[in-house]
Amino acid sequence: MSQDKIINEVLDELEKNGHKLSRREAMKLIAISPLAAGVLSNAAAPVSAQAASSATGRIVIVGGGLSGVATAAKLCKRLRSPDITVIEPNPISVSYQAGQTLIAAGVYKKEDIIYQTSDFMPKEVNWIQKAAKNFDPENNKVILEDGTEVGYDYLVVAMGVTLNYGAIKGLEGEITTLGNCDEVRKKVGKNGVYSLYFAEGSVDTYDGIQEIIKKAKNLKGNEKLQLIFTDSPTAVKCGGAPKKVMYIANDLIKKAGVRDKVEILFYTNSDKLFGVPEYAKAIEEQFSKRDFKWEFKTRLVAVDTQNQVATFEKTWVEKGEWDKDLEEYEMITKKETFEKKFDFLHVVPPQKAPDAVGKSPLGSPASWVPANKETLQHTAYPNVFAIGDCAAVPLGKTGGSSRKQYHVLVDNLIAVMEKKDKLPAKYDGYTVCPFITSIGTVMFAEFDWSGKPAPSFPLDPTKERWSMWLLKVYMMKPIIFHGMLPGRI
């Protein structure tokens, strides 16, 4: 897509949602974002073949989401004679999952995040529209659902995650973000139980917030509705989403004039509100300002959907007996469960790599794909790489992470193909969480393995800004679809 078309798409989206900017104003906004500016400069520049490698080999990419398709596209640019197969059964696998919070906010519709994978799959790629069932890395084979074996010389695993709602007692189903969700929706999306981690669920979540607003308007006296938001004990994609939906619900309820009729509570299995101290401090201040209540080391273990009761397990550590030899106290982990009535419960499902890979020889005991966190190379098989949500890599489960990872993976995969002794590229743990703090403000939290903010803007990243809202809502999607998916940025 040309530079003009990208800018026009951004302007059209802004105008459609009541924000009319001139082209000059839009360019000023883009100018403060190195990310957006990079998309435009790359869109205007011709694709260079100077870095093309003559290395050859059969490359199989399992997973045709953002990570898989972007990797395929970049490999097609970097290899003179690419031999690439992508295994992906879902015809809408590249859909914009980051937009699900905006569906819950009433800003997007479901159709705003759905795209046809065929529109973005590189023409040089052989696309197998079947699911992988197992892996045989000793013999360099992927086994498909129909028993067909696909051989490879080099493998990239980009399979995303599964959402295991059934791991919470009282709920059912294990699904992906897009696809059949009937089993999960037997319990989620009704009776006050919601979850925006899948597309239909985000639509239900918006409806659920509207239902709470109606109920709140009918309350008498000092009655208050109980809104409970949860986290997960597992690693999750978009780790900020459990809080974003709370901010969104708060803002919609406040604008409806019934904020005093609800109590908002957040339960997290973590011992902090965010892993980066600067952002944790900012979030705690935002929580306090909005009168949110929160509890650490507390996880959701069961839901009685019929009676609207959630069961939580809280853990803590107490001092035991004094150990004379070690000269320290024995530390004893304690647990207790408690029940909480709710009117609205947001569930964050436990997550893992799909069983096809997680329980295969390529998987780990925790059902992720073990990879070196810097090179993304599999820890046991040097001709295998993992990327995105399925990889056992810290801080690596956002679209922003994948946008950095796929460049590293391609450089290192080509180095392996060229039989080089060292892998040249390293992923630094960069990730980004655009915290939606209201319908109109975002705290753009960027960070890496240093444990410190890593902003790409000349602005204080801990502040809530309307300009970051514009970036999140109107610019990020064109950046992903016209910058990342073609393998440009």
Give a concise summary.
This is NAD(P)/FAD-dependent oxidoreductase. This protein is of the alpha/beta class and 489 residues long.
The appropriate CATH architecture of the largest domain is 3-Layer(bba) Sandwich
Going by CATH, what is the homologous superfamily of the largest domain?
FAD/NAD(P)-binding domain
| Domain module count | 2
Helix content: 25-40%
Instruction: Trace the largest sheet across and list its strands.
Output: 3-2-1-7-20
User: For the residues shown, what is the average pLDDT?
Assistant: 91
Strand content: 15-25%
- Largest sheet at a glance? 5 strands, parallel
Helix tally equals: 11
CATH domain fold name of the largest domain: FAD/NAD(P)-binding domain
Uncertain residue segments: none
Topology of helices and strands:
Layout: H1 3-16, H2 23-31, H3 34-44, E1 59-62, H4 66-78, E2 84-87, H5 100-104, E3 126-128, E4 132-136, E5 141-144, E6 149-151, E7 154-157, E8 162-164, E9 174-175, E10 193-194, H6 199-217, E11 225-230, H7 241-255, E12 262-267, H8 277-289, E13 293-295, E14 298-304, E15 309-323, E16 328-341, E17 344-346, E18 351-352, H9 355-358, E19 369-370, E20 384-386, E21 391-392, H10 399-417, E22 431-438, E23 441-447, H11 466-484
Parallel strand pairs: 1-2, 1-7, 2-3, 7-20, 10-17, 11-12, 11-17, 12-13, 19-21
Antiparallel strand pairs: 4-5, 5-6, 8-9, 8-18, 14-15, 15-16, 22-23
Helix pairs in contact: 1-11, 3-11, 4-10
